[in-house]
Amino acid sequence: MRYELLLQTMTPGVPYEPAKVDALLAERRVAARPDGLRVWHLRGGDVEVAELREGGQVVATELRVPLSDRPDLVREVVTEAAALAAAAGARLVDPQLGRSLSATDDGVVVEQYMRTAWYAGHVGGMSDVMSVPSPSAAGEPSSLLPSGRFIIIAIGVLIALYLVVDTVLGGVFGR
Known about the structure:
This protein is of the alpha+beta class and about 180 residues long. The protein has helices spanning about 20-25, 70-90, 105-120, 135-140, 145-170, and strands spanning about 1-10, 30, 40, 45-55, 55-65, 90-95, 100.
């Protein structure tokens, strides 16, 4: 499994021109592989670069970040890809978040990346990312998730409501 980011046209519906992005990638440390994919060599690791096609046309350039327990690579990819997108007149999109990104959005992307890595390691069976901590462990000091707190509070409110109604009805009917 990988975490994917897209370089797309700024305006939806306008044909994507991969030549601009390809020219800028050629200036960076990008090497072609025999299978047709390209690899962008960054300080934090390697990222696969591929064309995303729909209906036979290129609609985006896809950046595939391998999942791991270290968010350094995805931070670097967001920063570098945002600069690349700005230079190419394109936009960087995170399909998992469903929004366009800038270089300052690395924090929210890292959070989603870590959730994806945790899911891949614990549910998807990828043993190489099993050491990723639970996404709730980072922000939650207690073991009770917010949904569990809500259920406990709701049960407490229902019990209190029952006792109030029982007392009022007992007084009305003389029990």
